[in-house]
């Protein structure tokens, strides 16, 4: 049994049940929109249930999940666990995958204390960001200790395994087939932490800070960045570009424009943006908004960034 020092959003010591709450700054109230639920697993009974955290219940049959032509917004109310070999069926939620039309996979992992799981498919690279808790990782046989805000990148085909600490662990994972280029070596294993990466003003705006976690090097064909917006800050223009995105809201709330639709978003929401999907974000509320996002980079558009070059 974990100690009382464990964070309450990972473990409720009195009931023995694991809870998930919206990740937010200390003292920030949960945004009271109608989807403030998280799936929670009752560790003792081994069941999966929904736990009301804040706000009012959604009407039966309603959802904020939207599947558009070139985007998807995934409401955590609708999360269904399973589908990731290497993890217990109730430990993972696949958010984005090629079945949606994406060239990558994005999934959430929730491990109870001492529970382990891992991945590492041939030719597939990966990036893991620890959202909460602590964990011990094995990266190609190399042991690494991780705390919330730490991350790692594994080169193509490298097996990795994560074991949760005494309070459990929560992580988001991005995986994609590596797009090789003649004369360019594969990227190396990389381990880092958020606090050691400087947040730089995005296009000169000090209220929109961008942290880039992977090097801008020809060997890398993916990027994972952390964006933080102060209340009222926004992207400077509506973007439309060749890269696709997978995004997870970490803290705060805001408005996201995707194609011709406008969506209120909050911590826990996941978003897929296909290439050339018009996109724009503005932070709302009294506290900063933060999101983590993936994009494909470093390859010519005539090359298939999803794994195989199309140029002879």
Describe how the helices and strands are arranged.
Elements: E1 37-42, E2 47-52, E3 66-67, E4 71-74, E5 92-96, E6 105-111, E7 116-119, E8 124-139, E9 142-147, E10 150-154, E11 160-177, E12 190-193, E13 200-202, E14 205-212, E15 222-229, E16 245-251, E17 253-258, E18 261-266, E19 270-273, E20 279-284, E21 289-296
Antiparallel strand pairs: 1-2, 3-4, 4-19, 5-6, 6-11, 7-11, 8-9, 8-10, 8-11, 10-12, 13-14, 14-15, 15-21, 16-19, 16-21, 17-18, 17-20
Give a written overview of the molecule:
The chain has an 8-stranded antiparallel β-sheet with strand order 3-4-19-16-21-15-14-13, with no helix packed on it. Strands 5, 6, 7, 8, 9, 10, 11 and 12 form an 8-stranded antiparallel β-sheet that branches. It has a single domain (37-296), classed as Jelly Rolls. A hairpin with an 8-residue loop joins β5 and β6 (105-111). Mean pLDDT is 84; it is low at 7-56 and 307-312. The protein is built from no helices and 21 strands. It has strands at 37-42, 47-52, 66-67, 71-74, 92-96, 105-111, 116-119, 124-139, 142-147, 150-154, 160-177, 190-193, 200-202, 205-212, 222-229, 245-251, 253-258, 261-266, 270-273, 279-284, 289-296. It is mainly β and 312 residues long. Helix content is 0%, strand content 45%.
